[in-house]
Every structure is written in C-alpha cells, then in structure tokens.
C-alpha cells in the first residue's frame, strides 16, 4: 500500500524547479532595474501594486518597496488559503523578491538625458519593452507578480469578472492619480508605456515562431497527408466531413505547425491540388510532442 501511494505522488524535478526559480529571480531583477532606472526618472508608473507604490512615493516620499510590502502581505496570505500551493509558493517568492529588488535598485541611474524630450520618450519605451518582455517568462513558468494579479484571479473565480477588465480598471485609477500628481502629459506617456509593455508581454508569451492550426479541404487528401508527414514531420489528423451544398463526403486534413513551416505546406498543397482550400488559424499555445512541454 505504501509503495502504491509513493508511486502515485508526483515526482518533483528539482533541476527544472531550480532553473525555473533562477529565471523568475533574474527577470524580476531586470524589471526592477528598468522601473527604477527608466520609469522613475521620467515620473512614470507601472501597473498594479507597483504603480500604487510609485504613486505613494511621488506624493509622500515613502519608498515604493515599503508600500509594496504592506499591500502584498494580506494578498499573499489570501492566496495561500485559496490557490494552488505550487503557484502560491512561486508567487510569494516572486513578490517578496520583487519588493527586495525595488529597494536594492532604488538608487540606480541609467545614462539617459531625461531632460531631453526625445530621450525621455526613448527611455520610457525601452523600459516598457523590458518590463513587458521580462514579465512573460515569469507567467510561463507558473508564477505571477502577486498583487493585483492575485486579486484579479480570485475575483474571476468567485464572480467570473474578466481578469483583464479588473487589471485595466485598477491601472486606470493609477493613471488618474498620476495625472493629479504629475500632470496630464506624464499620465498620457504612462498610458503609452503600459500599452507598449502589454504588446511586448503578449509577443514574448506567444513566441517569435508562432503556432498555426491548418484545415485543408481537398479531394486529393490521400496524397497531401503523406507529403506533409514526410516533409514537415508534423502529425496529421484526418477528419470525416460532409459538404452542406453538395452532400458529398469529404475528409479534412488537420495539421498543427509552426509559422516557419507554412510555406512548405502551402507548396505541397499547391503542387498536388491548386483548387484546395486551406484555412489557417492562429493558435495561442500548443503543448505536447514536438511543441511546448506539458509541464
């Protein structure tokens, strides 16, 4: 019985977990360097609890890391009670390390001329790209930055509120507060920075070599499928179908492939059946053999 229970327990891959932790800690440190070195000299704010901490620092000269710590503690306790243990542990580590890095990098200065309008915009956009791009690996590794991410997730589970709408509402309040403290120009630049950061985040999350789902409708599917298997080395699924207008039985060729492989598949279909119909759909994420790890 004991052996049976031991076999059922999931095996912890310590090397993978340590590698994950190293990536998360590195990305958080780089984010804090960008926030303190590029956002703060421009008077900008980030989103979530970090943005609230920066607002408090601008208005009352209270260090942002201290506000972050005070805000995060009750949220992390709530997460510990309500969410999965692994996700919560990573989130606690990420949040506390983020708070520590905000304090450690508070005095950092990146050599931009922040009085020059062009340099201000350049440095702000650079900071946005860095923060967004570094945020994606943290989420991909099964953690979050805590704060409003946890609040949004819990509210989504409890009341089915869209997570994006919750985060957007909090960020709009932060921008409104910044407009009162620093003026409309700085608030407007912060909106642009948040948008650029979200674009960078989404692109890194999806990856440069994105995945597509293809449905190929052709009477010559028996020739197309083997060529895709042999030349692209991707799995092919054959789906029985019926034409609504003709009433004829058809077979759909279903393929999941990388964008870099699309030209080869197009060539195969064009050479075999120029009259074929190909439907290409963006696929957010694919896990399993030949793609990302399910773990």
Structural features, described:
63% of the residues lie in helices and 11% in strands. The chain contains eleven helices and four strands. The chain has a four-stranded antiparallel beta sheet with strand order 2-3-1-4, covered by helices on one side. Strand 2 and strand 3 form a beta hairpin. The longest helix has 26 residues, at 14-39. Mean pLDDT is 86; it is low at 1-10.
How are the strands of the largest sheet arranged?
A: 2-3-1-4
Q: SS-based structural class?
A: alpha+beta
How much of the polypeptide forms β-strand, as a percent range? 5-15%
Helix-strand sequence: HHHHHHHHHEHEEHE
What is this entry, summarized?
The chain has 295 residues and is of the alpha+beta class. The protein contains eleven helices and four strands, in the order H-H-H-H-H-H-H-H-H-E-H-E-E-H-E. The protein has helices at 2-8, 14-39, 48-60, 64-82, 85-104, 117-140, 148-159, 163-182, 184-206, 221-232, 262-272; strands at 211-217, 236-242, 249-258, 277-283.
Secondary structure topology:
Elements: H1 2-8, H2 14-39, H3 48-60, H4 64-82, H5 85-104, H6 117-140, H7 148-159, H8 163-182, H9 184-206, E1 211-217, H10 221-232, E2 236-242, E3 249-258, H11 262-272, E4 277-283
Antiparallel strand pairs: 1-3, 1-4, 2-3
Helix pairs in contact: 2-5, 2-6, 3-4, 3-8, 4-5, 6-9, 7-8, 8-9, 10-11
Which key phrases capture this entry?
295 residues, alpha+beta, 11 helices
């Amino acid at each position: 019985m004991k052996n049976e229970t031991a076999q059922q327990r999931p095996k912890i891959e310590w090397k993978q977990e340590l590698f994950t932790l190293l990536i998360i800690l590195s990305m958080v440190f780089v984010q804090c360097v960008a926030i303190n070195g590029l956002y703060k000299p421009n008077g900008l704010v980030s989103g979530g609890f970090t943005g609230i901490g920066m607002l408090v620092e601008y208005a009352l000269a209270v260090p942002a890391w201290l506000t972050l710590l005070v805000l995060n503690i009750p949220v992390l306790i709530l997460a510990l009670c309500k969410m999965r243990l692994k996700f919560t542990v990573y989130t606690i580590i990420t949040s506390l390390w983020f708070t520590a890095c905000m304090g450690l990098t508070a005095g950092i200065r990146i050599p931009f001329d922040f009085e020059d309008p062009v340099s201000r915009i350049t440095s702000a956009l650079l900071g946005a790209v860095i923060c967004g791009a570094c945020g994606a690996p943290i989420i991909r590794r099964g953690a979050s930055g805590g704060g409003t991410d946890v609040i949004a997730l819990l509210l989504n589970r409890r009341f089915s509120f869209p997570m994006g709408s919750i985060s957007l509402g909090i960020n709009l309040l932060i921008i409104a507060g910044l407009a009162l403290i620093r003026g409309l120009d700085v608030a407007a630049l912060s909106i642009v920075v948040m948008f650029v950061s979200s674009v960078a985040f989404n692109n890194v999350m999806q990856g440069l070599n994105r995945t597509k789902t293809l449905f190929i409708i052709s009477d010559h599917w028996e020739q197309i499928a083997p060529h895709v298997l042999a030349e692209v080395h991707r799995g092919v699924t054959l789906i029985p179908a019926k034409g609504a207008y003709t009433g004829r039985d058809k077979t759909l060729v279903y393929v999941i492939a990388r964008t870099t492989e699309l030209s080869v598949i197009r060539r195969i279909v064009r050479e075999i059946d120029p009259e074929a119909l190909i439907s290409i759909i963006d696929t957010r994420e694919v896990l399993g053999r030949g793609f990302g790890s399910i773990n």
